Amino acid sequence: MKTIIISFANSSEQPLKSITEEDAGIHTILNENNRGNFNIHRESYATIDNINSAFSVHGSNIGIFHYAGHADQQSLLFNDQAANGKGIAFQLQPSIGSGALKLVILNGCSTAAQVNQLLELGVPAVIATSASINDITAKIFGIELFRNLCQKRMTTRYAFTAALASAQTAATNVSLGLGEHMDRALNIPGEKPREPFWGLFYKKAEAVDSSPIPAETTQTEVAYEPNLQLTQTIFTALVLDGNVPAQQLDERKKQEIIEDNVFQKTIMDVFPHPIAIQLKTLFAAEYGADALKKPGIKRLEQIARVFHITTEFMGIIMISQLWELKITKQVTALPDEISDLMEKYFKLTIHERAVYNYSTLIKAIRKYIDTQANVNYFVTELETLREEDPANKPFGDACEYLSYIRNATYFSISNPNDPPMIQESEIPQLCLTAEEMLSVFFEKLGFLHRYTLTSIQNIRINKFRHDTSTEFDHQVVKLMNSNASHEVNYYLLAKHLDNSGVILTKQSLNVFNVERRQYKGDELAFLNLSPLVVDINSFESRSDRSNLVFYGNFSGDVYVFRNVSKPDDELNRVEINIHRKFGRTEQQEQGRYEAVCKQLNAFKEFALHEIIVHP
């Protein structure tokens, strides 16, 4: 079995405090993601003797060699002992000859001069530096590199690029104390640390467009039954959160055998349509979805799509609440960071929006709302998802992992001619891990059944001459299942909602008349999601089904929307031209269309820091 050697060296005269953290971080990542695929040889206090011994023991089976510590153009420093880089290169020759060695990482200063020798001897790929690097930044780079390689199963090329981005972000945003921290270099006293500058070196592109992590296994492959874990996790979350249909089914299963599709239908019936329709596709409930019933790229794409559309839906809720606060003048001026966030969100292209990290947006808006007195989240359960709570770390890790899978799978869709970010051989394992992560993600979202998504088609006044009070009759289409069928209900309220559109409510009204599908109450707590969520079929009076779309981008005079059923399909995009004209017989559709366009223009003004609240 192949071995990954990780070695860490500290100098007693120039100690590097973050070496221990890098050692522990990389070792943990390797252990957590090793399913019998490789051995791990760890040298936390590397010396020339124990490194020579490691090379001798593992001989021709070294898959990756990682070094972290002091270095220069000719040497690596092991516990104050300088080891000649050329000698180390020659000791790796047995593993080079066997084809086992895929990657050498020299995470120390100015190691690029040693690269030529390694490449000439046949090492496929080498990561090294061409300048002195800061200790903390090097630690971040090393840990993120192995996280990308092992957990996210990236190719060497993309793992390197992502790790470099993480290191540079940290170097920019974190106070590194440049005058105090030691460089990973030898014999350059007094030289100021420079920005990190790693390089990925290779002779053939295929050496970096594959994963260097050994893939062999001595264990029997674990049987993978798609949807089983996800279905059980979501159903249990609904039961624990008090969803009545789920609790009733939970009682039934104690007395009879219930098929999985029954549990799945219960889930889909109580979730908002944008999420339910993507779960339906993942559950392969539609005819011809065989490619989704087994591990494969299509299934991996759909797992990532479920995650992305769910976080996008939650992000839209947060933006809608922020806009509501501004329109109602509960807040006056937004801080610069929130204004910049809104501008960036509005200006995203379709492809950028398809991989946009809504988790970051949600956190930013949530933290801003926290600063406002007497303002609560519309989705109150966000209180339970604070990232500073240690109990939410698995949730945060799942979001990070699924964000990468979304990036990687969408990259293949939008850049079919470029090297894929995911190797075909990695896909079965990624499907298993991704479903585990999606289960962790949804385990915290059982509360979503408490919120009802509806499309308000019309608001009518009910008042006869002899009545002393006015009643407002809201014609409502319920959007709480995977079919989005035209289930028309009527909400009879003492006060009318402020406008038509797609709204999210968080309370149930009492049934008033079953036959006429009427519900009645004094008021209804709601959040209007228009125009970021639009029911396009509300423009068509003869339509018998809703067509829900999410805002995509603005170009010229045209707003582009993505269909929530097939958000990545160009053929299903909807364009709304703000200058479109209707015929004489289309007055009802024209009125609805113009209302959406006015809201779109108002939102554009808001997002571009030019909010104009029209009377």
Your description of this structure?
The structure is a single chain. The protein is α/β, with parallel strands linked by helices and 615 residues long. It is 40% helix and 17% strand. The chain has helices spanning 19-32, 48-58, 85-91, 93-98, 115-121, 135-151, 156-173, 228-240, 244-252, 260-270, 273-282, 297-327, 336-347, 350-354, 358-370, 393-414, 427-443, 587-607, and strands at residues 3-8, 39-43, 62-68, 75-78, 81-84, 103-107, 125-129, 198-202, 452-462, 471-478, 488-493, 501-505, 510-513, 518-521, 526-528, 533-535, 548-555, 558-563, 574-577. It has a seven-stranded mixed β-sheet with strand order 13-14-11-10-9-12-15. Strands 2-1-3-6-7-8 form a six-stranded mixed β-sheet, sandwiched between helices. The chain is elongated, with a radius of gyration of 29 Å. The termini are far apart.
